[in-house]
Amino acid sequence: MLEINDLHASVGGSEILRGLSLSVRAGEVHAIMGPNGSGKSTLAQLIAGNDAYTVSRGTVELDGEDLLPLSPEERARRGIFLGFQYPVEIPGVNNAYLLKAALNARRKYAGLSEIDAFEFLKLARDKMAMLNMDPKFLNRGVNEGFSGGEKKRNEILQMAILEPRLAVLDETDSGLDIDALRAVANGVNALRDPDRAIILVTHYQRLLDYIEPDHVHVLSEGRIVRSGDKSLALQLEEKGYDWLREAASA
Amino acid sequence: MNQRTTPLQSIDTLGAMALDAPGGQPSVTPPADATVAAIASQFPANWLVIRNGKASDVAAQLPGLNVALTQDVLSIQVPAQLVHDGIVGLLFIDDTENGAGMSHARVVIELQAGSAVNIIEYHSTIGNAMHHAHCAMELSLAAGARCNFIRFQDRQTQHDQTGSLTATLDMDSQLHHTAFDLGGNVVRNELNIKLAGAGAMTCLYGLFMAGGDQHVENHSRVDHLVGPASSEQEYRGIAAGASRCVWRGVAVVHRGADGTNASQANHNLLLSAAAIIDATPQLEIYADDVKASHGTTFGGLDQNALFYLRTRGLDDAAARRLLIGAHAGKIVARSPLPALQARISEIVAQRVATLIAEEAP
Ligand SMILES: Nc1ncnc2c1ncn2[C@@H]1O[C@H](COP(=O)(O)OP(=O)(O)OP(=O)(O)O)[C@@H](O)[C@H]1O
Ligand SMILES: [Mg+2]
């Protein structure tokens, strides 16, 4: 589904991604771990179409289509969803309005009619119930004054409503209490489907207890330096990243 | 005992008024044969029409109010204790091709003790000749009077306007004023509010939007003569093209006006590198027990918010419309007469769309 090959990307003159390759097939869940500053968010933002990053080499394809020339909205309409590490507060833009506009943009691209107000409300309420979210969040400004955990839950609500083909969740588990973590994991697991894929960027093995990944990768200095199954996450939890660096330089 | 009149006209009717797109962009210039009557017919029938500065028919249906025209001064008196829950509409139309190139309107409004009224003034122009309209308004609120006031300026962008509203608020009276400036060439509005009685309260909100080479100024001054009393000012600006806007908010807390609450805020969105907004908040405090605050912000559209919205599938223009609309929406939401807010939002949204079109690459 997603094929990244030898990707080099820089921002502000410094190269952040240095030859990153990653292949994600439909139905899979991939976890990407790695030290702070290694380029995980850069990769996530790049997949979503943030043009702050300049790609100097390499390719990114979704189902064989070159993603790089596409705008963020074109990517979203093709089913890419980014759960932000730092969800943006947008005062004065109604949360429900955005959810509905986002869903309709995706439906329109798929040749479907706009969802009617009643149907939308029902859908939103169902998804919020699944995520243990108070319906009052629908009528707030997008992330406006939300706590850190509430913002992350709101990202998952958007994901649950949009049902993306490829969800990239950038540290959606950071800052969550135990209940919220379970709710988020429920949301992600509900999305698991042979036609969809999920990339989880995380620092914690804890999330992977709830969402079992098919593959775990370690990103370091802009490159994937190790890939394995879920046991790799356990090893990292135990030994940290230095162990990998030592292994790499040995 | 409070008297009540039948509402002048249901607010819903006003909400349906078929106004042209604001801002006087070329595409929305009324056709050359548009007449004053045709414009007026888009407003409720009981609105007072002030054509080229002159009120024509003051016999309009404003039951309970005393309306008079003396030497070109339109005066409206709201008798004591009368709670007028309809709208007093003042439609200023300047027919630029059938006038002297300028117009002067004078309006005096008196709210007697305990009375209440909703006032909307709407300024528009037709025709393509040069024109300068001036409107001087005086408002007095006696003890316990309450006034909701909306000023809407939607002139074509080649026409100038200057105007002032001077208001004196007696004990426990309240003025809730919201101004919308969407059009005009050179525009200068002044608000002079005197809080002269203890317990008086005023909120002054405003939204100005300018593009092209429009020049729009809003100056407000609140004099806290006694305390306790409170004033709140919040203006928001949106400037595109090579437009230039000025906001100057002054609050003077005079000696002895203890228990004053005065706040000022001005938040500005600059949509182009050439647009300029000058903002000057000014607080002068000569009393002791005063709570005062002011804040001014400037910025372009939040690029992170723009990207966030686009990752949700909204195209660039829709995302911009949403963000600019949200900035403007804060003032729409603060305007009195909630039943009108949806209609005002639509008019503002149309103006947002023309500003975005102006900035389109
Ligand atoms: N605009 C920028 N200008 C310069 N450097 C930048 C810019 N944005 C990101 N970087 C740098 O790129 C590197 C990778 O950042 P990125 O956010 O991708 O890391 P990360 O792996 O997500 O880290 P974390 O685990 O802390 O979230 C960092 O060293 C960061 O400082
Ligand atoms: Mg990160």
Largest sheet of chain A: 6 strands, mixed
Heteromolecules bound: adenosine-5'-triphosphate, magnesium ion
Number of helices of chain A: 9
| Topology pattern of chain B, helix = H, strand = E | EHHEEEEEEEEEEEEEEEEEEEEHHH
Mean pLDDT of chain A: 92
Structure description:
The complex is a heterodimer of chains A (250) and B (361). With 250 residues, chain A is an alpha/beta fold. Chain A has helices at residues 40-48, 72-77, 95-109, 117-130, 148-162, 178-191, 205-210, 230-239, 242-249, and strands spanning 2-11, 14-24, 29-33, 54-62, 65-66, 80-83, 90-94, 141-142, 166-170, 197-201, 215-220, 223-228. Chain A has a six-stranded mixed beta sheet, with helices on both faces. In chain A, strands 2-1-4-5 form a four-stranded antiparallel beta sheet, with helices on one face. Chain A has a two-stranded antiparallel sheet with strand order 7-8. In chain A, a hairpin with a 2-residue loop joins strand 1 (2-11) and strand 2 (14-24). Chain A starts with a strand and ends with a helix. The mean pLDDT of chain A is 92. Chain B is α/β, with parallel strands linked by helices. At the A-B interface, helix 2, strand 6, strand 7 and helix 3 of A face helix 3 and helix 4 of B. The structure holds adenosine-5'-triphosphate and magnesium ion. Magnesium ion (MG) binds at residues 40-41, 85, 170-171 of chain A. Magnesium ion is lined by residues 40-41, 85, 170-171 of chain A.
Descriptors for this entry?
heterodimer, A: 250 residues, alpha/beta, 9 helices, 12 strands, globular, B: 9-stranded mixed β-sheet, 21 strands, disordered N terminus
Can you summarize this structure?
The complex is a heterodimer of chains A (250) and B (361). Chain A has 250 residues and is α/β, with parallel strands linked by helices. Chain A has 9 helices and 12 strands.
How would you summarize the topology of this molecule?
The complex is a heterodimer of chains A (250) and B (361).
Chain A: E1 2-11, E2 14-24, E3 29-33, H1 40-48, E4 54-62, E5 65-66, H2 72-77, E6 80-83, E7 90-94, H3 95-109, H4 117-130, E8 141-142, H5 148-162, E9 166-170, H6 178-191, E10 197-201, H7 205-210, E11 215-220, E12 223-228, H8 230-239, H9 242-249
Helix pairs in contact in A: 5-6
Chain B: E1 3-4, H1 11-15, H2 36-40, E2 48-51, E3 54-55, E4 66-70, E5 73-78, E6 82-83, E7 88-95, E8 102-111, E9 116-126, E10 131-141, E11 146-153, E12 159-169, E13 174-181, E14 186-195, E15 201-210, E16 215-224, E17 229-239, E18 244-253, E19 260-270, E20 276-285, E21 290-299, H3 303-311, H4 316-334, H5 341-359
Parallel strand pairs in B: 1-6, 2-7, 5-8, 7-9, 8-10, 9-11, 10-12, 11-13, 12-14, 13-15, 14-16, 15-17, 16-18, 17-19, 18-20, 19-21
Antiparallel strand pairs in B: 2-3, 4-5
Helix pairs in contact in B: 3-4, 4-5
The structure holds adenosine-5'-triphosphate (ATP) and magnesium ion (MG).
